[in-house]
Automatic annotation (TrEMBL):
Keywords: NAD, Oxidoreductase
UniProt protein name: 2-hydroxymuconic semialdehyde dehydrogenase
Family according to the record: Belongs to the aldehyde dehydrogenase family.
Organism whose genome encodes this protein: Kribbella pittospori
Active site (record annotation): E267
Length: 500
């Protein structure tokens, strides 16, 4: 019987499925299991096999062996054919992936259908294209004595890549790294979040169905410290580590990686600012901010948690945003009209609610939300919080400086363009910013003025997969996307031929 039943959408499945690790092309069980519960109801939906140190070692060895087999001899074009088969497979398994993703996260079926799952297939198609069309460097060299040479670089795989990802956009973020890693000829061992083991398991099934050679894609389930995440990242045969998640976890992984000088790519946290200028299209700025603050329950590293609004429109903007936040509909994930989703876990809900309390104790005025909704049904066992808008905090309050990762924003006024950039830049993080203005000159000034990796003007989370993606300061190390991903997941060897 399929594990990926529509019952997962309710958070109340009739039976609890077993999710296994995928090593060397086989699904394997390990000694212990842990429970995965639904964020919608708090009921257990899966038993998950936790990979112990020997299971992680077997996965890394399977990856090493795969690099020596047929996979290591394929051309870029041949690998691209395999990647496109994976994309086709993800599309064939679309409804299974929706059930898996919604079951694990409680996100709305409409978001899973329009964002999370389509981006899985899109990532594989995009990197099949990028890897087969990207140029490599070439120089004709002329020396002072008249000798000439041709230099050109060839791209080679890095080797075994460890991929560690979080729970907020599970399939999207996993495939964003698996696709370029495989396009460049590497073999991977992936460690999804303990909170979201399901869509990675469907991806493993798709890999097998698409004929990806055994050992090229390996999946280990488990936790971070003293579990699969740590065993994987400190494994001596892992050549590179790519990670998305909390900045503190990035620090822990960087320390482990330093011992063997492994290359790392980190997409970390954010405390992203939105700047609303008085000349903006106010309707668009309000609706855009509703998206940027509340999408995925505020659980996207790109979400806006700090809004700065030019003083003449401050009161109107704040009232309108709070009104729209209060109108966001609750519903079961399977209801297309549902806009709010639960947070991922009780632990994360406790963290977010502690920030709601902290904001109040630091002097915030709560314009809407600030608590927990009540349903009178099984969702009361879940992890819901109210979308929340606050104002009145100083710039250095903890609630306005620390990443909360929930459906909350703080709104503050500003008076000049320079002040707006200074407030936005006054953060340990530097991931993304959103600017709402009709002034084209200001739109072009914002990019250079803001100390972040991504600036959106009059939009948010509009993605072109060729563009550099990543953050400054505590928000990350390196960039992925397009040729930036190809650079991380491959090693260039320069060839110099003297021309006679
Ligand atoms: N992209 C972002 O900005 C994200 C930020 N967060 C923030 O992080 C907080 C904690 O969420 P978590 O999912 O626990 O994030 P996390 O950063 O602890 O976990 C992300 C992934 O790293 C793994 N991991 C954790 N510690 C590790 C270690 N020492 N070595 C190797 N792997 C390790 C986890 O098992 C998971 O697969 C959230 O409350 C949220 O504020 C969470 C997810 C994404
Ligand atoms: O690649 C994207 O489009 C989205 C990335 C989002 C994150 O990295 C995150 O939320 O952690």
């Amino acid at each position: 019987m399929s594990l990926w039943t529509p019952e997962l959408l309710t958070g109340q499945p009739k039976s609890v499925g077993l999710l296994r690790n995928f090593v060397g092309g086989e699904f394997v069980e390990s000694g212990s299991t842990f429970a995965k519960v639904s964020p919608v109801t708090g009921e257990q939906i899966f038993d998950v096999c936790e990979a112990d140190e020997s299971a992680v070692d077997a996965a890394v060895q399977a990856a090493q062996a795969a690099l020596k087999g047929p996979w290591g001899r394929l051309s870029e074009q041949e690998r691209a054919v395999v990647l496109r088969r994976v994309a086709d497979g993800l599309e064939r398994r679309f409804e299974d992936l929706v059930a898996a993703e919604v079951g694990d996260t409680g996100k709305s079926i409409s978001q899973a259908r329009t964002l999370d799952i389509p981006r899985g297939a899109a990532n594989f198609r995009a990197f099949a294209d990028f890897a087969t069309t990207a140029a490599t460097e070439s120089y004709t060299t002329v020396l002072p004595d008249g000798r000439r040479a041709l230099n050109y670089a060839v791209r080679k795989p890095v080797g075994v890549v460890a991929i560690v990802v979080p729970w907020n956009l599970p399939l999207l973020l996993l495939t964003w790294k698996v696709a370029p890693a495989l396009a460049c000829g590497n073999a991977v061992v992936v460690k999804p979040s303990e909170e979201t083991p399901a869509s990675a398991t469907v991806l493993a099934e798709v890999m097998a169905e698409a004929g990806v050679p055994a050992g090229v894609f390996n999946l280990v389930h488990g936790f971070g410290p003293s579990s699969a995440g740590e065993y994987l990242t400190r494994h001596p045969s892992v050549d590179a580590i790519t990670f998305t998640g909390e900045s503190a976890t990035g620090t822990a992984i960087a320390k482990v990686a330093a011992d063997r000088v492994k290359s790392v790519s980190f997409e970390l946290g954010g405390k992203n600012a939105g700047l609303i200028f008085a000349d903006a299209d106010l309707d668009a700025a309000v609706e855009g901010s509703v998206r940027s603050v509340f999408t995925n329950g505020g659980q996207v590293c790109l979400c806006t948690e700090r809004l700065y609004v030019e003083r003449p429109i401050f009161t109107e903007f704040a009232e309108r945003l709070a009104q729209r936040a209060s109108e966001l509909t609750y519903g079961w994930p399977a209801d297309e009209a549902t806009m709010n989703m639960p947070l991922i876990s009780k632990q994360h809900r406790d963290k977010v609610l502690s920030y709601y309390d902290l904001a109040r104790s630091e002097g915030a005025e709560v314009l809407t939300g600030g608590g927990v909704p009540s349903f009178g049904d099984a969702r009361d066992g879940g992890c819901y919080v109210q979308p929340t808008v606050v104002t009145g905090l100083p710039q250095d309050a903890r609630a306005t400086t620390e990443e909360i990762f929930g459906p909350i924003c703080h709104i503050a006024p500003f008076d000049t363009e320079d002040e707006a950039y200074a407030l936005a830049n006054d953060s340990e993080y530097g991931l993304a910013a959103t600017v709402w203005t009709r002034d084209v000159g200001r739109a072009h000034r914002a990019g250079p003025a803001l100390d972040v990796g991504i600036v959106w003007i009059n939009t948010w989370f509009l993605r072109d997969l060729r563009t550099p993606f990543g953050g400054m300061k505590l928000s990350g190390v390196g960039r992925e996307g397009g040729t930036h991903s190809l650079s991380f997941y491959s090693e260039p060897t320069n060839v110099c031929i003297e021309l006679t």
